[in-house]
Amino acid sequence: MSLFHHHHDHADHDSHDSHGHGGHGHHHHHHGASGPAAFPWRRASLAALLIAFAIAAASLVQVRSGEATVVTRFGNPSRVLLEPGLNWRWPAPFEATIPVDLRLRTTSSGLQDVGTRDGLRIIVQAYVAWQVQGDADNVQRFMRAVQNQPDEAARQIRTFVGSALETTASSFDLSSLVNTDASKVNITAFENQLRQQIDQQLLATYGVRVLQVGVERLTLPSVTLNATVDRMRAERETIATERTAVGKREA
User: Fold this and answer.
1) What is the DSSP string of 125-190?
2) What is the distance, to the nearest Å, from the Cα of residue 62 to the centroid of all Cα atoms in its chain?
3) What topology does it adopt in the membrane (predicted)?
4) Of 62, 100, 162, 203, which is least packed with CB atoms within 10 Å of its CB?
């Protein structure tokens, strides 16, 4: 009887031990399942963070010194950024940016054969120092006029100045531009008038302002040299004749 009872206790102990072991195993299984389930969430969070950083980086605009930046929305200008530093925009394809160079440029007219008021030909070359006016309206005007191409602007300005030289030269006699008497030469007046010819027109047409205009070169073609020599000879002969006449009267 006691032997059976002992066997029963042993079996009961085994059952209890087995139950305890099973419980432990169940607890271990639950702990293992929680680990892998957390990693997809971490990966998703990291991916979302990287995407957010990428969008933020794509939305930043760096406006450099000496530049303006035109922000376009679906290809149409929406605003102009003028202050150097960082700004925001919608990422592509909603908005894009176009830098516009505001630095000073110099354009030469090249040699131009023009006529003076007294009908003589001169060869003159002038230069213009210009830059895109740093305000929103003129920056956009420059973009529309030459598609934001400074070289194309320079080419058109060169033609512009060539025409202005012709008009300006026709207001001056040769003697006020080329003379052995330096006090009679007035190149400054020529340059000022040339600037007045182009100043407002370049601003209205291209959105650029003229900072300086100057004559680089002024020469006389052979036909003008010959005419000038003949004129000087005639003037000397006239003076000599007048002196002779005065001498005869005094005698």
Assistant:
1) EEEEEEEE-SSHHHHHHHHHHHTT-HHHHHHHHHHHHHHHHHHHHTTS-GGGTS-SSGGG--HHHH
2) 14
3) Single-pass membrane protein
4) 62
User: Quick check: is 250 in a domain?
Assistant: no
Per-residue model confidence as pLDDT tens digits over 71-82:
888 878 878 888
Q: Residue 102 has what pLDDT?
A: 96
Name residue 106's beta-bridge partners: 129
The DSSP H or E segment spanning 76 is strand 76-81
State the CB neighbour count (10 A cutoff) for residue 99. Answer: 16
Number of domain units in the chain: 2
Letter string b/e over residues 143-182, b meaning 16 or more CB atoms within 10 A of that residue's CB: bebbebebeebbebbeebbbebbeebbeebebbbbbeeee
* Residue numbers in the chain where pLDDT is lower than 50: 1-33
Give the burial string for 113-127 (b: 16+ CB within 10 Å, else e): ebebeeebbbebbbb
Are 194 and 165 a contacting pair, CB within 8 Å? yes
pLDDT of residue 157: 97
Cα–Cα distance measured from residue 186 to residue 172, given in angstroms and rounded to the nearest whole number: 9
Same domain, 89 and 166: no
For residues 58 and 160, state if they share a domain.
no
Domain final position from 76, 101, 126: 101
